[in-house]
Amino acid sequence: MPMRSPVSRKSAGASSCRSPTPLEIVFASASCRRRERSSWSSAQNRRMSELATAPLPDAAARRWTLVSAVLGSSMAFMDGTVVNVALPARAGITFALIEAPTRAGHEGGVLGAGVLGLAALAAFVAWEARAHHPMLPLALFRNRDFAGANLLTLLLYAALGGGLYFVPLNLIQVQGWGATAAGAALLPFVAIMFALSRAAGALADRVGAKWALVAGPAVAAVGFALFARPGIGGRYWTSFFPAVCVLGLGMTITITPLTTTVMNAHGQALAGTASGVNNAVSRAAGLLAIAALGAVLAQVFEARLHAAIAGSDLPRDVADAVWQQRHKLAAIAPPEGAAPGVAQQVHALVGNAFVAGFRLAMQVSATLAVASSLSAAWLISARLPSDAPKGTAP
Prior knowledge:
This protein has helices spanning 6-16, 21-26, 30-42, 46-53, 59-71, 80-99, 107-130, 144-174, 179-184, 187-207, 209-227, 236-239, 241-264, 271-310, 316-324, 340-379.
């Protein structure tokens, strides 16, 4: 076993809190594992985990911790070919989604990047299907519970990552809030997860993971739908607060049984691999959703802004200046020297156009959450799986 400095051991221990895998190792009892998963889920939220790991030692210590962990593993394989295929797949698709709304007249480059990304994705899947030591073991997805949990993760975390990305933009650029207030607006989400995760885990034990995973995303869908209600202005407590609370409740109901389903699908021997795959799915879902929903919001914003400018009495030079800034979305600024009344009119036109796009993005997020609920009803077994290992690698 490789030697580690005390600093490295502390760094590794703190970093491991971000993953449920250590719980499978430390807690041998099934009931203890379920209870500790609930506690871990309350800290899974990115805002909490980043605060928890902020005081880690310097970057060099973290790098050496990772190196020692790899050197001490008997299964440390690094397939350069698959990495060289996976990165272009993700980069090409993401670039195409992000740049499509702002590349008028240069569609060829965007289309080429998208085609390259899709081709690389197909090559990645084909390579992994034949690899002796795949980075993504496709055989894991033959288990319906595992496949269902990851489909739910893909849809729900796309809604979460994509939808919540635009909430601070709305609060700061349209509602006129400060950055601190906009960040604090989502604190009830974190507080609900922290306070109710153990209770949600106990509920999942009583009713079964399947029904918790049907109910949780459905509640989250209501939260996203509530985000589509506010316009410009209004009090936080009657506009955004209900949406934040309902969404937090839905995610709290979901996360513990989702973790349990993923970790139990292939037994304790493959719990780490299952957790890694599910974590990768959630991160990829959020990234792609931000790009896709950003494209949707930008298209709606541009259409609404064009119609609003055409129907307004803005001076021609002001209207042209506003339209030329359309790629900035809600950050559009009136031209310097514009009269106060004209500047106020510009802010109103831009704000209303952004709210229209924001509402559609929230509606799409709600639809994704409903789809994730239906995927749980379709694929995940009604009986809560045993915590005992089901076997070895497929």
